[in-house]
C-alpha cells in the first residue's frame, strides 16, 4: 500500500540543536499509528514536521506523494489536521465558535458560512458528545471536556488524516480512555488515518495498529504492538526494566515496570 | 443550536449573531445624535432647524462659516479618527492576543509625537533644519514618525516570525525611546513652542479643517474594507501559531498585512489630531464586552471609537469654561478603565 504520509531522511531541530536526525516513516491510510519514546526524544517535533508546522532542516515530508511544503497550505489543511499539545484559544470563546473555526480551510472571506459547515460542525459536536455544551465557553469546561472540544474542532476540519500530539495529557485514566475510544471511533466509523504521540505505553499498544519507538531523534523500532513492545526494546529506548505480559482484556502487550524496590 | 446563524446568497455566505449586529447599530444612532449636538452647540448655539437650513445652502455668511468651516470639519474629523483608532486598536489587540495592546505599543503614536514635536520645535531657528522641517509640515512629519517607529518595532520584534508577546515587549521599549526623544525636543524648544507641542501630543481637534479630514477619510475608505476582508483571518490568528498554521492560514503574511492596516490607520489618524489617548486601547474592549464576542469586533470598534471621540470632544468643547484638548477628556475617561482592566487581569492570573 502506498503511504498517505511519508517522512524521508527527515532532519529537524530548533536553533542550534538537532532533535531528529535522518528519520524515515510511512503512515499507511486507514491505520492508527502511535509514536512512543522518552521525554525529549523528538516525538512532538516529528509530529509538527509531518503536519508542516515545522520546516525540516533536511529531508522531506510527502503527503499523497507530493512534497507537503510545496502544496498550498489551505489545500494541506483540507487533507490533514493537527492538534498541537497545548493549543490556546482566546478568552471567552464558546465551544461552538471553536469548532466552527475548524471550517476555516473550507471558507473564504466572502464565504464564511455554508450548509456544509453547519453539517460538519453539528456532526463533530455530536461525535464528541459536546452538543449540549456548545454554548459554553472553553474556560468553563473540565480538562476532559476541553480536550474533546479541541478534537471536535479537528474533526470539523473534515480531514482524512489527523495528527494528535498527546491528546490525553493532563487527563485522568478514565478520561484518557474516553478520548482514545473517541479516536478509535474516528478510525472505525469515519475511516480516518490517525498519527498520535502517546506517553502511556499500555494505552498506545491497546489503541494503535502500529507503534513507532523513538530515542534521541532516531527510530529504534516500528511495527505491530507485539513486535515493538518487548522487554529488550523497553530497556534500549526507555532504560526501563519491565516485564511485558498479555493484556488480560485486549490481548495486547502490557508493560509492567519493575522499579528498584522489586529488582532482584 | 442557538449560537450559530448563517445566511447564504449565491457564493457569499456569512455567519452572524444578533448581539454583535445590534451593538454597532445602536452606537451608530448615538453617534449621529452626538454629531448633531456637536454641530448645534458652542459659543454660537444654533437650533436643529438653523443647522439644516445652513446645510441646505441657506443662512448668512457667519452661520455658513461656523457650520462649514468650524464645526462640521472638526466634528467629522473627530468621528473619523475615532473610527480609525477603534479599528487599529481592535486589530492590534486581536493579533497580540493582549487586551492591553494598542497602536501605542506598535510604536505608531509615540513615533508620530516625536515627528510632530520635532517639526514644531525645529521649524523656528536651527538654520537650515528649519526650512526643511517647515516644508515637511506637521501632519506629514507625524505620519513619517509613526511609520518609521512602527517599522522599527516590527523589525526588532522579528525573529523568524513575529510573536505577539515579543511585539508588545519591543513596542514598550520603542515607546519609551520615542517619548524621551519627544521630551528632549521639548526641552530644546522655547516655551511657546513647547506649549503648542504639548497640546498636539495630548490630542486635539481644535481648528481642524477639511484639509485634516480628507486624509483620514481616504485612509478609512481604503483600509476599513481591507480590514473587513482580513477579519476572517484575524479570527484564526487568535489561536497559538501551530493551530493557526494547521488551519491553513499564512500566519506571517496575514499578520504583517493586518498590522500594516492597523499602523496606517493609526498613523494617519494621529497625524490629523495627535495621539488621542486611550481611544484605541479602550474602544475595542468596550466593543467586545458589549457585543459579547471572543475578540474585538471590527465594525463595532469603528462605530464605538467614533462615538467615544465625538462625545469626548463635545464635552471638551462645551462642558467647561475653557476649551480642553479632546485627549484630556478621553484620558480622564480612559485611565480608570485601564486600571479596571489591569485589576481584572491580575485577579484572573491569581485565580
TrEMBL record, chain A:
Coiled coil: none annotated. SMART domains: AAA. GO terms for biological process: iron ion transport. Keywords: ATP-binding, Cell membrane, Ion transport, Iron, Iron transport, Membrane, Nucleotide-binding, Transport. Residues 5-241 form the ABC transporter domain. It holds the Pfam family ABC_tran. One of its GO terms (cellular component) is plasma membrane. Its main location: membrane. It is found in: Cell membrane. One of its GO terms (molecular function) is ATP binding. It is a peripheral membrane protein. This is Iron complex transport system ATP-binding protein. It comes from Kutzneria buriramensis.
TrEMBL record, chain B:
Belongs to the binding-protein-dependent transport system permease family. FecCD subfamily. InterPro entries: ABC_BtuC-like, ABC_transptr_permease_BtuC. It holds the Pfam family FecCD. PANTHER family: FERRIC ENTEROBACTIN TRANSPORT SYSTEM PERMEASE PROTEIN, FERRIC ENTEROBACTIN TRANSPORT SYSTEM PERMEASE PROTEIN FEPG. The chain crosses the membrane at residues 21-41, 76-95, 107-126, 132-155, 167-186, 213-235, 256-281, 324-343. GO terms for biological process: siderophore-iron import into cell. It is found in: Cell membrane. It is a multi-pass membrane protein. GO terms for molecular function: transmembrane transporter activity. Keywords: Cell membrane, Membrane, Transmembrane, Transmembrane helix, Transport. This is Iron complex transport system permease protein. It comes from Kutzneria buriramensis. GO terms for cellular component: plasma membrane.
Amino acid at each position: 500500500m502506498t503511504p498517505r504520509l511519508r517522512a524521508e531522511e527527515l532532519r529537524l531541530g530548533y536553533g542550534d540543536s538537532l532533535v531528529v536526525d535522518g528519520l524515515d516513516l510511512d503512515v499507511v491510510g486507514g491505520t492508527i499509528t502511535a509514536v512512543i519514546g522518552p521525554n525529549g526524544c523528538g516525538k512532538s517535533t516529528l509530529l509538527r514536521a509531518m503536519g508542516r508546522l515545522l520546516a525540516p532542516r533536511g529531508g522531506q515530508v510527502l503527503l499523497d506523494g507530493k512534497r507537503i511544503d510545496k502544496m498550498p497550505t489551505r489545500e494541506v489543511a483540507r487533507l490533514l489536521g493537527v492538534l498541537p499539545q497545548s493549543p490556546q484559544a482566546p478568552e471567552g470563546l464558546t465551544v461552538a465558535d471553536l469548532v466552527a473555526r475548524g471550517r476555516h480551510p473550507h471558507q473564504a472571506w466572502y464565504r464564511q458560512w455554508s450548509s456544509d459547515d453547519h453539517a460538519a460542525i453539528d456532526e463533530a459536536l455530536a461525535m464528541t458528545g459536546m452538543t449540549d455544551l456548545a454554548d459554553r465557553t472553553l474556560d468553563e469546561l473540565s480538562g476532559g471536556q476541553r480536550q474533546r472540544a479541541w478534537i471536535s474542532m479537528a474533526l470539523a476540519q473534515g480531514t482524512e488524516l489527523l495528527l494528535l500530539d498527546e491528546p490525553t495529557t493532563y487527563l485522568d485514566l478514565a478520561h484518557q480512555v474516553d478520548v482514545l475510544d473517541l479516536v478509535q471511533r474516528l478510525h472505525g466509523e469515519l475511516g480516518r488515518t490517525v498519527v498520535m504521540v502517546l506517553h502511556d505505553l499500555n494505552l498506545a499498544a491497546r489503541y494503535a495498529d502500529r507503534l513507532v519507538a523513538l530515542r534521541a531523534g532516531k527510530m529504534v523500532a516500528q511495527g505491530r504492538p507485539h513486535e515493538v513492545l518487548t522487554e529488550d526494546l523497553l530497556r534500549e529506548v526507555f532504560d526501563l526494566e519491565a516485564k511485558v505480559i498479555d493484556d488480560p482484556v485486549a490481548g495486547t502487550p502490557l508493560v509492567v515496570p519493575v522499579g528498584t524496590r522489586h529488582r532482584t | 443550536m442557538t449560537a450559530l446563524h448563517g445566511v447564504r446568497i449565491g457564493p457569499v455566505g456569512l455567519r452572524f449573531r444578533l448581539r454583535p449586529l445590534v451593538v454597532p447599530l445602536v452606537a451608530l444612532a448615538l453617534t449621529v445624535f452626538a454629531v448633531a449636538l456637536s454641530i448645534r452647540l458652542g459659543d454660537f448655539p444654533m437650533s436643529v432647524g438653523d443647522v439644516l437650513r445652513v446645510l441646505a445652502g441657506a443662512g448668512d455668511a457667519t452661520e455658513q462659516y461656523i457650520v462649514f468651516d468650524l464645526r462640521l470639519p472638526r466634528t467629522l474629523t473627530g468621528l473619523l479618527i475615532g473610527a480609525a483608532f477603534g479599528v487599529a486598536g481592535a486589530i492590534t489587540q486581536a493579533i497580540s492576543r493582549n487586551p492591553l495592546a494598542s497602536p501605542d505599543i506598535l510604536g505608531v503614536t509615540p513615533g508620530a509625537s516625536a515627528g510632530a514635536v520635532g517639526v514644531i520645535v525645529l521649524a523656528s531657528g536651527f538654520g537650515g533644519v528649519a526650512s526643511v522641517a517647515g516644508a515637511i509640515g506637521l501632519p506629514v512629519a507625524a505620519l513619517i514618525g509613526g511609520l518609521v517607529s512602527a517599522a522599527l518595532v516590527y523589525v526588532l520584534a522579528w525573529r523568524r516570525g513575529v510573536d505577539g508577546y515579543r511585539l508588545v515587549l519591543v513596542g514598550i521599549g520603542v515607546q519609551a525611546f520615542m517619548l524621551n526623544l519627544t521630551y528632549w525636543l521639548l526641552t530644546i524648544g522655547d516655551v511657546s513652542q513647547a506649549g503648542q507641542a504639548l497640546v498636539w501630543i495630548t490630542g486635539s481637534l481644535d481648528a481642524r479643517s477639511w484639509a485634516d479630514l480628507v486624509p483620514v477619510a481616504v485612509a478609512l475608505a481604503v483600509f476599513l474594507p481591507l480590514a473587513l476582508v482580513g477579519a476572517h483571518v484575524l479570527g484564526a490568528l487568535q489561536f497559538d501559531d501551530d493551530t493557526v498554521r494547521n488551519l491553513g492560514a499564512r500566519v506571517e503574511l496575514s499578520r504583517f498585512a493586518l498590522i500594516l492596516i492597523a499602523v496606517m490607520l493609526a498613523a494617519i489618524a494621529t497625524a490629523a489630531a495627535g495621539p488621542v489617548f486611550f481611544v484605541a486601547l479602550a474602544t475595542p474592549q468596550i466593543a467586545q464586552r458589549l457585543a459579547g464576542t471572543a475578540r474585538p469586533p471590527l465594525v463595532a470598534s469603528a462605530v464605538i471609537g467614533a462615538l467615544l471621540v465625538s462625545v469626548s470632544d463635545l464635552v471638551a468643547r462645551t462642558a467647561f469654561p475653557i476649551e480642553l484638548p479632546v485627549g484630556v477628556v478621553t484620558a480622564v475617561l480612559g485611565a480608570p478603565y485601564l486600571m479596571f482592566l489591569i485589576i481584572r487581569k491580575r485577579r484572573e492570573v491569581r485565580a
